[in-house]
Design a protein that fits this description.
By secondary structure, the protein is of the alpha+beta class. Helix content is about 30%, strand content about 35%. The chain is globular, with a radius of gyration of 15 Å.
Length: about 100
């Protein structure tokens, strides 16, 4: 799995016209300057393994046909996993700060 750093590899973008979601802009790598947003995210269990399922919309990309690319889906899947893990780490630290 790739490692992503907030503010270095990606950044959150708030769109005043779309207040129900946060957009993500990729800052490095082969998809640099691509902007997208995640839709529904879920974790499904199959045969004792957990699988991350998600929808996404590409809002802009200099890369042609990126929205249909399995490589891009894997790339942003790794990003989503990084975001979720970092959020869990922060929440766990908050639990023990009291």
């Amino acid at each position: 799995m790739r490692k992503f750093i907030d503010g270095t590899d990606y950044q959150y973008v708030i769109n005043e016209k779309d207040t129900n979601s946060v957009h993500i802009k990729l800052l490095t790598g082969e998809y640099k300057d691509t902007m997208f947003k995640f839709g529904k995210v879920s974790i499904e269990e199959k045969d004792g393994n957990a699988y991350l399922q998600f929808d996404f919309d590409v809002l802009y990309s200099p890369v042609k046909k990126v929205a249909k690319s399995l490589e891009f889906r894997d790339y942003i899947g790794d990003l989503l996993t990084n975001i979720m893990i970092s959020k869990l780490d922060l929440d766990e630290e908050d639990l023990y700060d009291e």
